[in-house]
Protein backbone atom coordinates (compact mmCIF):
# COMPACT_ATOMS: atom_id res chain seq x y z
CA UNK A 1 0.00 0.00 0.00
CA UNK A 2 1.50 3.34 -1.02
CA UNK A 3 0.99 6.56 0.95
CA UNK A 4 -1.83 8.68 -0.44
CA UNK A 5 -0.50 11.24 -2.89
CA UNK A 6 2.79 9.39 -3.52
CA UNK A 7 1.77 6.99 -6.28
CA UNK A 8 3.77 8.78 -8.99
CA UNK A 9 6.86 9.57 -6.99
CA UNK A 10 8.94 6.50 -7.80
CA UNK A 11 11.34 4.45 -5.73
CA UNK A 12 13.52 6.21 -3.19
CA UNK A 13 16.85 4.77 -2.11
CA UNK A 14 17.79 7.42 0.45
CA UNK A 15 20.67 8.63 -1.70
CA UNK A 16 20.92 11.75 -3.85
CA UNK A 17 18.05 13.48 -2.09
CA UNK A 18 17.36 17.03 -3.26
CA UNK A 19 17.24 19.32 -0.24
CA UNK A 20 17.11 23.05 0.46
CA UNK A 21 18.62 24.15 3.81
CA UNK A 22 18.27 27.65 5.24
CA UNK A 23 20.79 28.94 7.74
CA UNK A 24 23.30 26.56 6.18
CA UNK A 25 26.43 28.62 6.77
CA UNK A 26 27.13 27.59 10.35
CA UNK A 27 26.02 25.45 13.27
CA UNK A 28 23.13 23.04 12.85
CA UNK A 29 22.55 24.01 9.23
CA UNK A 30 26.13 23.24 8.26
CA UNK A 31 26.05 19.95 10.17
CA UNK A 32 22.83 18.91 8.40
CA UNK A 33 24.33 19.73 5.02
CA UNK A 34 27.46 17.69 5.74
CA UNK A 35 25.39 14.76 7.01
CA UNK A 36 23.19 14.71 3.90
CA UNK A 37 26.21 15.10 1.63
CA UNK A 38 27.51 11.76 2.92
CA UNK A 39 24.55 10.21 1.05
CA UNK A 40 25.39 12.11 -2.14
CA UNK A 41 22.61 14.65 -1.60
CA UNK A 42 22.09 17.52 -4.01
CA UNK A 43 21.79 20.64 -1.89
CA UNK A 44 20.84 24.29 -2.09
CA UNK A 45 22.50 26.10 0.82
CA UNK A 46 20.89 29.36 1.90
CA UNK A 47 22.09 32.17 4.16
CA UNK A 48 22.75 35.87 4.40
CA UNK A 49 26.57 35.67 4.23
CA UNK A 50 28.34 34.15 1.24
CA UNK A 51 31.64 33.23 2.92
CA UNK A 52 30.25 30.72 5.46
CA UNK A 53 28.03 29.18 2.76
CA UNK A 54 31.06 28.69 0.53
CA UNK A 55 32.85 26.90 3.37
CA UNK A 56 29.84 24.63 3.91
CA UNK A 57 29.64 23.90 0.19
CA UNK A 58 33.29 22.86 0.12
CA UNK A 59 32.72 20.50 3.04
CA UNK A 60 29.71 19.00 1.28
CA UNK A 61 31.59 18.44 -1.95
CA UNK A 62 34.39 16.73 -0.01
CA UNK A 63 31.82 14.49 1.71
CA UNK A 64 30.37 13.35 -1.61
CA UNK A 65 27.46 15.72 -2.15
CA UNK A 66 26.76 18.52 -4.59
CA UNK A 67 25.92 22.01 -3.37
CA UNK A 68 24.86 25.35 -4.74
CA UNK A 69 24.86 28.41 -2.52
CA UNK A 70 22.21 31.13 -2.66
CA UNK A 71 22.32 34.30 -0.58
CA UNK A 72 18.79 35.15 0.48
CA UNK A 73 16.75 36.78 3.24
CA UNK A 74 14.19 34.22 4.35
CA UNK A 75 11.98 36.90 5.86
CA UNK A 76 11.62 38.80 2.59
CA UNK A 77 9.01 37.50 0.14
CA UNK A 78 10.72 38.68 -3.03
CA UNK A 79 14.05 37.23 -1.89
CA UNK A 80 12.38 33.89 -1.13
CA UNK A 81 10.61 33.89 -4.48
CA UNK A 82 13.95 34.32 -6.27
CA UNK A 83 15.50 31.65 -4.05
CA UNK A 84 12.92 29.07 -5.09
CA UNK A 85 13.23 30.01 -8.76
CA UNK A 86 16.96 29.28 -8.54
CA UNK A 87 16.28 26.09 -6.59
CA UNK A 88 13.91 24.88 -9.26
CA UNK A 89 16.47 25.60 -11.98
CA UNK A 90 19.15 23.73 -10.02
CA UNK A 91 17.28 20.72 -8.64
CA UNK A 92 14.05 20.50 -10.62
CA UNK A 93 12.15 19.36 -7.53
CA UNK A 94 12.63 19.08 -3.77
CA UNK A 95 12.65 15.92 -1.68
CA UNK A 96 13.42 17.85 1.50
CA UNK A 97 13.31 21.29 3.08
CA UNK A 98 15.06 22.28 6.29
CA UNK A 99 13.92 25.59 7.81
CA UNK A 100 16.87 26.24 10.10
CA UNK A 101 17.62 29.97 9.83
CA UNK A 102 17.14 31.60 13.21
CA UNK A 103 17.79 34.69 15.26
CA UNK A 104 18.10 35.03 19.04
CA UNK A 105 17.32 37.95 21.30
CA UNK A 106 17.32 38.12 25.09
CA UNK A 107 15.02 40.35 27.08
CA UNK A 108 11.59 40.50 28.68
CA UNK A 109 8.57 41.88 26.83
CA UNK A 110 9.20 45.23 28.49
CA UNK A 111 12.87 45.22 27.54
CA UNK A 112 12.37 44.15 23.92
CA UNK A 113 12.02 47.01 21.42
CA UNK A 114 9.15 46.43 18.96
CA UNK A 115 11.55 46.52 16.02
CA UNK A 116 13.65 43.75 17.57
CA UNK A 117 10.51 41.70 18.34
CA UNK A 118 9.44 42.05 14.71
CA UNK A 119 12.86 41.06 13.38
CA UNK A 120 13.07 37.90 15.53
CA UNK A 121 9.61 36.80 14.39
CA UNK A 122 10.36 37.78 10.79
CA UNK A 123 13.32 35.39 10.66
CA UNK A 124 12.18 32.62 13.03
CA UNK A 125 8.52 32.32 12.08
CA UNK A 126 7.68 34.33 8.97
CA UNK A 127 10.80 32.92 7.29
CA UNK A 128 9.70 29.28 7.55
CA UNK A 129 6.20 30.32 6.45
CA UNK A 130 7.47 32.10 3.34
CA UNK A 131 10.01 29.42 2.38
CA UNK A 132 7.56 26.56 2.91
CA UNK A 133 4.85 28.38 0.97
CA UNK A 134 7.19 28.97 -1.96
CA UNK A 135 8.69 25.47 -1.81
CA UNK A 136 5.43 23.51 -1.89
CA UNK A 137 5.22 23.30 -5.71
CA UNK A 138 8.71 21.78 -5.83
CA UNK A 139 7.97 19.48 -2.89
CA UNK A 140 4.88 18.17 -4.68
CA UNK A 141 7.18 17.02 -7.48
CA UNK A 142 9.63 15.36 -5.10
CA UNK A 143 10.13 11.79 -3.90
CA UNK A 144 8.46 11.21 -0.49
CA UNK A 145 8.95 14.91 0.35
CA UNK A 146 9.57 15.99 3.92
CA UNK A 147 9.96 19.29 5.74
CA UNK A 148 11.94 19.62 8.96
CA UNK A 149 11.71 22.83 10.94
CA UNK A 150 14.29 23.66 13.61
CA UNK A 151 12.69 25.11 16.71
CA UNK A 152 14.03 24.82 20.27
CA UNK A 153 13.13 23.49 23.67
CA UNK A 154 12.15 27.13 24.21
CA UNK A 155 9.34 26.48 21.76
CA UNK A 156 7.98 23.95 24.26
CA UNK A 157 8.71 25.70 27.54
CA UNK A 158 9.62 29.26 28.45
CA UNK A 159 12.83 30.83 29.72
CA UNK A 160 13.06 34.11 31.56
CA UNK A 161 14.33 37.07 29.56
CA UNK A 162 13.72 35.51 26.14
CA UNK A 163 10.18 36.59 25.26
CA UNK A 164 10.66 37.17 21.53
CA UNK A 165 12.68 34.02 20.94
CA UNK A 166 10.37 31.77 22.98
CA UNK A 167 7.23 33.02 21.28
CA UNK A 168 8.68 32.75 17.78
CA UNK A 169 9.89 29.19 18.36
CA UNK A 170 6.57 28.16 19.92
CA UNK A 171 4.81 29.53 16.85
CA UNK A 172 7.07 27.43 14.65
CA UNK A 173 6.06 24.28 16.53
CA UNK A 174 2.39 24.84 15.83
CA UNK A 175 3.03 26.03 12.28
CA UNK A 176 4.67 22.63 11.76
CA UNK A 177 1.53 20.84 12.95
CA UNK A 178 -0.67 22.98 10.71
CA UNK A 179 1.46 22.27 7.62
CA UNK A 180 1.50 18.56 8.47
CA UNK A 181 -2.30 18.47 8.66
CA UNK A 182 -2.86 20.59 5.56
CA UNK A 183 -0.57 18.59 3.27
CA UNK A 184 -0.73 15.02 4.59
CA UNK A 185 -3.05 13.98 1.78
CA UNK A 186 -0.39 15.10 -0.71
CA UNK A 187 2.21 12.85 0.89
CA UNK A 188 4.18 15.82 2.24
CA UNK A 189 5.37 15.28 5.80
CA UNK A 190 6.34 18.09 8.18
CA UNK A 191 8.07 17.70 11.55
CA UNK A 192 9.95 19.94 13.94
CA UNK A 193 13.00 19.28 16.09
CA UNK A 194 13.42 21.10 19.39
CA UNK A 195 17.08 21.05 20.41
CA UNK A 196 18.32 21.91 23.86
CA UNK A 197 21.53 23.91 24.06
CA UNK A 198 23.81 23.13 21.13
CA UNK A 199 27.46 24.11 20.76
CA UNK A 200 26.96 26.78 18.08
CA UNK A 201 27.69 30.47 17.67
CA UNK A 202 24.16 31.32 18.81
CA UNK A 203 24.52 29.52 22.13
CA UNK A 204 27.58 31.62 22.93
CA UNK A 205 25.83 34.97 22.45
CA UNK A 206 26.27 37.47 25.28
CA UNK A 207 23.05 37.43 27.29
CA UNK A 208 23.97 40.55 29.25
CA UNK A 209 23.53 38.62 32.51
CA UNK A 210 26.89 39.48 34.05
CA UNK A 211 28.06 35.87 34.07
CA UNK A 212 31.53 34.79 33.06
CA UNK A 213 31.22 32.86 29.74
CA UNK A 214 32.79 29.73 31.26
CA UNK A 215 30.44 29.85 34.24
CA UNK A 216 27.43 30.30 31.97
CA UNK A 217 28.58 27.30 29.90
CA UNK A 218 28.73 25.14 33.03
CA UNK A 219 25.21 26.25 33.98
CA UNK A 220 23.94 25.39 30.50
CA UNK A 221 25.48 21.94 30.74
CA UNK A 222 23.87 21.39 34.13
CA UNK A 223 20.29 21.93 32.93
CA UNK A 224 20.54 18.80 30.77
CA UNK A 225 20.09 15.54 32.70
CA UNK A 226 22.78 14.00 30.47
CA UNK A 227 25.12 16.65 31.88
CA UNK A 228 26.42 18.13 28.66
CA UNK A 229 25.60 20.29 25.65
CA UNK A 230 24.73 18.76 22.27
CA UNK A 231 26.90 18.89 19.20
CA UNK A 232 25.43 20.13 15.91
CA UNK A 233 26.15 16.69 14.44
CA UNK A 234 23.81 15.05 16.96
CA UNK A 235 20.96 17.28 15.83
CA UNK A 236 21.85 16.67 12.19
CA UNK A 237 21.45 12.90 12.59
CA UNK A 238 17.84 13.33 13.70
CA UNK A 239 17.07 15.85 10.96
CA UNK A 240 18.50 13.46 8.36
CA UNK A 241 16.28 10.68 9.71
CA UNK A 242 13.15 12.84 9.55
CA UNK A 243 13.96 13.80 5.96
CA UNK A 244 14.40 10.19 4.93
CA UNK A 245 11.84 7.58 3.88
CA UNK A 246 12.82 5.68 7.07
CA UNK A 247 10.54 8.11 8.97
CA UNK A 248 7.66 7.75 6.50
CA UNK A 249 4.94 7.42 9.18
CA UNK A 250 6.05 10.43 11.23
CA UNK A 251 4.40 13.78 10.59
CA UNK A 252 3.28 16.65 12.79
CA UNK A 253 5.73 15.58 15.50
CA UNK A 254 7.67 17.94 17.77
CA UNK A 255 10.78 16.03 18.81
CA UNK A 256 12.94 17.28 21.69
CA UNK A 257 16.65 16.59 21.22
CA UNK A 258 17.64 17.95 24.57
CA UNK A 259 19.49 15.46 26.75
CA UNK A 260 16.34 15.02 28.83
CA UNK A 261 15.82 18.73 29.55
CA UNK A 262 12.07 18.75 28.89
CA UNK A 263 11.54 15.41 30.64
CA UNK A 264 12.22 16.79 34.10
CA UNK A 265 14.68 18.49 36.41
CA UNK A 266 18.21 17.02 36.33
CA UNK A 267 18.49 16.94 40.13
Going across the biggest sheet, name each strand in turn: 3-2-1-4-5-6-7
**Number of DSSP E strands:** 7
Taking the alpha carbons of the first and last residues, their distance comes to: 47 Å
Order of helices and strands: EHEHEHEHEHEHHE
Second CATH tier, the architecture: 3-Layer(aba) Sandwich
CATH superfamily: NAD(P)-binding Rossmann-like Domain
Count structural domains.
Answer: 1
Secondary-structure content class: alpha/beta
> Helical residue percent?
40-55%
Report Rg. 18 Å
CATH class: Alpha Beta
**Cα shape:** globular
**Low-pLDDT regions:** 1-15
Strand proportion, as a percent range, falls in 5-15%
What would you say this structure looks like, in words?
With 267 residues, the protein is α/β, with parallel strands linked by helices. The chain has one domain: Rossmann fold, CATH 3.40.50. α1 packs parallel to α2. The N terminus is likely disordered.
Q: In a few lines, what is going on in this structure?
A:
This protein is an alpha/beta fold. Helix content is 41%, strand content 14%.
Give structural attributes:
267 residues; alpha/beta; Rossmann fold; 7 helices; 14% strand; disordered N terminus
Amino acid sequence: MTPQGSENRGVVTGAARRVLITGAGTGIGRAVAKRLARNAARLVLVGRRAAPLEQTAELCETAGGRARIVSADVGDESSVRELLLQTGETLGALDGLVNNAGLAHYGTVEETPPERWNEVHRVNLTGPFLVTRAALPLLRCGDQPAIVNVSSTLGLRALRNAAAYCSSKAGLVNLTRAVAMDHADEGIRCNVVCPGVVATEMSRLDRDDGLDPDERWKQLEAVHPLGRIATPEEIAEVVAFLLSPASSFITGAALPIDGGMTAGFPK
